[in-house]
């Protein structure tokens, strides 16, 4: 499988997730208390939450991803698996810059954590 992140399909960057790749769903649920005291839950929608660590990213690609994080750019996350392509509309939700450190023993390659949430 191949993983790409970009604003469009023309400017995508390939990422190399480690074994801790997670792709889950988060439910948006509203709760209301009725007049008789009971709760009523309304499930509005689900959205994807994708998280993984990645290594071996060159400095120019790391700078581009970090700039997307700085500007809160709306991105597309592509997963290519033997001919089928899955595309999610996402935004970077890291608390700190995604690529903040080097990938030892290299000083020209970066490692970091990518946290993405789907927007609707």
- Output the number of helix runs: 1
Distance between the termini: 25 Å
Task: Give the overall average pLDDT.
Answer: 87
Encode the helix/strand succession as letters: EEEEHEEEE
DSSP strand content: over 45%
The assigned structural class equals mainly beta
The counted number of beta strands is: 8
Main beta sheet, described?
8 strands, antiparallel
Radius of gyration: 18 Å
Query: How would you sum up the global shape?
Result: elongated
Poorly predicted regions:
none
Tally of structural domains: 1
Which bin fits the share of residues in helices?
A: 10-25%
Architecture overview:
With 120 residues, this protein is mainly beta. 11% of the residues lie in helices and 57% in strands. The protein has one domain. The protein is built from 1 helix and 8 strands, in the order E-E-E-E-H-E-E-E-E. Strands 1, 2, 3, 4, 5, 6, 7 and 8 form an 8-stranded antiparallel beta sheet that branches. A hairpin with a 6-residue loop joins strand 1 (2-6) and strand 2. The longest helix has 13 residues, at 59-71. The mean pLDDT is 87.
Q: Can you tag this structure with a few keywords?
A:
elongated; eight-stranded antiparallel sheet; 8 strands; 120 residues
Furnish the topology, listing elements before pairings:
Blueprint: E1 2-6, E2 13-15, E3 22-33, E4 39-58, H1 59-71, E5 75-81, E6 84-92, E7 101-102, E8 109-118
Antiparallel strand pairs: 1-2, 1-5, 3-4, 4-8, 5-6, 6-8, 7-8
């Amino acid at each position: 499988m191949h993983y790409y992140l970009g604003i469009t399909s023309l400017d995508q960057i390939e990422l190399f997730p480690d074994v801790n790749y997670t792709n889950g769903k988060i439910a948006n649920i509203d709760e209301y208390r009725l007049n008789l005291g009971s709760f009523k839950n309304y499930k509005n929608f689900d959205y994807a939450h994708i998280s993984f660590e990645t290594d071996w990213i060159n400095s120019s690609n790391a700078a581009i991803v970090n700039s997307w994080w700085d500007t809160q750019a709306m991105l597309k996350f592509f997963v290519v698996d033997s001919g089928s392509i899955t595309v999610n509309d996402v935004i970077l939700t890291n608390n700190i810059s995604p690529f903040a450190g080097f990938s030892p023993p290299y000083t020209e390659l970066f490692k970091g954590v990518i946290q993405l949430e789907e927007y609707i």
